[in-house]
Description:
Radius of gyration: 25 Å
Shape: globular
Number of strands: 8
Distance between the termini: 87 Å
Strand content: 5-15%
Largest sheet: 6 strands, mixed
Amino acid sequence: xxxxxxxxxxxxxxxxxxxxxxxxxxxxxxxxxxxxxxxxxxxxxxxxxxxxxxxxxxxxxxxxxxxxxxxxxxxxxxxxxxxxxxxxxxxxxxxxxxxxxxxxxxxxxxxxxxxxxxxxxxxxxxxxxxxxxxxxxxxxxxxxxxxxxxxxxxxxxxxxxxxxxxxxxxxxxxxxxxxxxxxxxxxxxxxxxxxxxxxxxxxxxxxxxxxxxxxxxxxxxxxxxxxxxxxxxxxxxxxxxxxxxxxxxxxxxxxxxxxxxxxxxxxxxxxxxxxxxxxxxxxxxxxxxxxxxxxxxxxxxxxxxxxxxxxxxxxxxxxxxxxxxxxxxxxxxxxxxxxxxxxxxxxxxxxxxxxxxxxxxxxxxxxxxxxxxxxxxxxxxxxxxxxxxxxxxxxxxxxxxxxxxxxxxxxxxxxxxxxxxxxxxxxxxxxxxxxxxxx
Length: 439
């Protein structure tokens, strides 16, 4: 049987046509993929407009803030900046009436480090001089033993900033930006997140997933899923903090300084930012955001309460020391922690679902209107709702010891009136093997 052969010239002509069609198909596929990811924009990197039913709720942005927020600051060029962790990101809105005279951006990063906050301050300052910084440092940020969970993500974050830590021009910024935008537009991971963003719109409507989205000003909204039992969600956050929220679980250590690490401790980064702000004439307001009293009790149980008091003393001392060195009035410091009417809010009944607490969303994060009261207090604004008298105390070297003593005295009321809460927290600490573990 004779072998069937194509004429040689037909094969030679067919090959380029096949490759051309393949290349064209690949280009069309990449174009469609890029267009889809650009329109949905799940990480809010491209600042694509919100489209109802498509991306009105950016449910997948949360884990990509280190990617998107440096570029958002470049676009907005704010003259007022909010810094801190997720407590700041969810509670403080830049469009608060007390900030009407500023172009404010909420640069808070969930679970962020002190270094990341200071670098973001430096990045924003290099773009436009900052007139106001609302900095809400967390106790865990100052732990010299703490390490970020994803060091690679933080290394990439630093490459996106306008300046390096030493103030020199960041030569890695543009290559990183090109890589970020093209990789994000054409990445399979982005496609998956785009699909989850689209399908998440309906899931939020059905109450199956939290109402989670980021706004153009950097503030994000996060509410308990309507079908989720609020009390169980509240306690889930507590378990995250006990004890790993404050200390690394491989050492259980907390210290403001680590021996042999001079100049590279979080407290040193904080000191640098304070000094720079005084020299640049930037107004800074420092706020200790409100944990729920149950978490304060957890701090007592794992043995970290004395360190938390020393931390507040150190912040007050540094603020006043650097003010004196620069011949300036010390920055304001406000403390919203403690055992107040707000902080001791009772947990909802076990069967209730959705958002059922007046002041808190969970043990670590307050409701939006609670955040508004915080801004009312520190900015001196008469808001539409009255502020509980004991919620928010301005502290300095003259009253810090009396203030700490007052918090400890108020704790006795919590121990007496909320014995069930105290017992529950102690049981959680013991179950985690964390009773008095901090050293």
